[in-house]
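Section 5.1 Outputs to date
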Amino acid sequence: MESIAFDLRQTRRTPLDAAHVEAIRAVGRTRTYAAGEFLARPGDRMDQFVWLESGEVEVVDLTTGERRLPSTLGPGQFMGEIGFLAGGRWTLPMRAAQDTTITEVDRPTMLRLMSEIPEMSDIIISVFAARRRRQLEDGDGALRLIGVDESAAIRRVASFATRNRIATVSYPLDSPEARAALHQCGLSEVQPAVIFGADEIITDPTPARVAHRLGLDIELDPEDAFEVLIVGGGPAGVAAGVYAGAEGLRALVSEDLAIGGQAGTSSRIENYMGFPTGISGADLVWRGEVQAMKFGTRFAIPLRATGIERGEDGTFCVRFDDGQSVCATAVVVATGVEYRRLPLPRLEDFEGNGVYYAATELEGRWCRGTEAVIVGGGNSAGQAAMYLSRNAEHVHVVVRGPSLAASMSSYLTQRLEADPRITVHYRSEVEDLQGQDRLERLAIVDRANGTRREIDCRALFIMVGAAPNTAWLNGLVELDDKGFIKTGQDCGLSDSPYATSCPGIFAVGDVRAGSVKRVASAVGEGSVVISHVYRHVRPGEV
């Protein structure tokens, strides 16, 4: 299956051409670091591109003060990883192993240079992406999570990190590593915690606090208007971000949890053109995010839109759940849909503690040595079943209807029915969730014959129904009777199939009434809508 980047061993020694180096030197400045001096520490802004002229740079283990990785960077190489494109923060401490001279270029200048020299950009981005991949595979990042199994708050942070491609290392609460890490932070009591860097405990750990520490969020200035604000970071929103940046529009993509949206929870997509061996939804959209950042599009997470207003001058101001707001000449609504919550007693008690709405690598951990239950008959449910069956003792797919033909692709249906580790329960429902602090047991009831089967289960995945995320639009655009946004001819408009009843607001992807609920369709709509947005924000140039 396709992954997010090339193998670092293939790219870390990829040199820049002599002309590329001269271009960097022409806009950069020279600095010298003595042996033992830090060039970057976890939490520092990644606001400089660093090219090594001479010397050696190593990654340091802040606990021991020793070299952390066997390989180092030397003359002709450059520092950084993919977070540089978004202006993130350093997650690994970088120290001069000997006297070192560098050429540094401020981030805006370097991004401009990369846009002007695509061959250089390709090399830099490939190496940056490969480094992020290595961090993820090795669990080599600035975040240490202690007590994931015991704390719902830590699990939420772990899920946020996993879905946003943030490298973490996780220690069991009763492990020697956890005790040592907490002791280093000055704590004698063993307790769940999120530790950043060497000894900084993130108090009241939430995805928002972690995002802020990593530089994933941005401070929005209401007076600093964008040409287009794209609300939603799923396939449609990210595709719109790619094309908006490519067309030179000043664009911002906001997302309330993780870039990838609902598609990011798909463990394997096999029917997307160009990936014959399949690709996870998160990896597919992550590639698009990197492309968009390359063209200058900015991303902000986690930000959930809570309201929108239209000014007298026709611009729009969107409010977010953290109290910030941002104004834009045009808004692309790509908020997609959310899985519906089932009307089950104690459902809220177990959400994040045995009840999940995504089936990524993290959630797959809770299926080991137990039976997993998935409620839903769509492609996401089918992909989740195939993925979870690798670790679970058995996977049960619960479907209310008599078959899967109407909602699931044929190839997935055939695989589910042929896999001895998967059982599909037709005309059935889940009820009676049981457990103390987390889900331990549930029942599957066959409504056709009334039979009831109790299952020891620590992981229930709900992937059923689709509720559009449109409440925040405050009636500014016309919706259908199910809450989806009407566009194009449904609104009496003929010039754009994505325009809404409010000029300047466009809708793409699953949130749009009548859209085809497939990843490829969402990507296509997000790509095409920007031509309509361009005509709206720059009418004199068309």
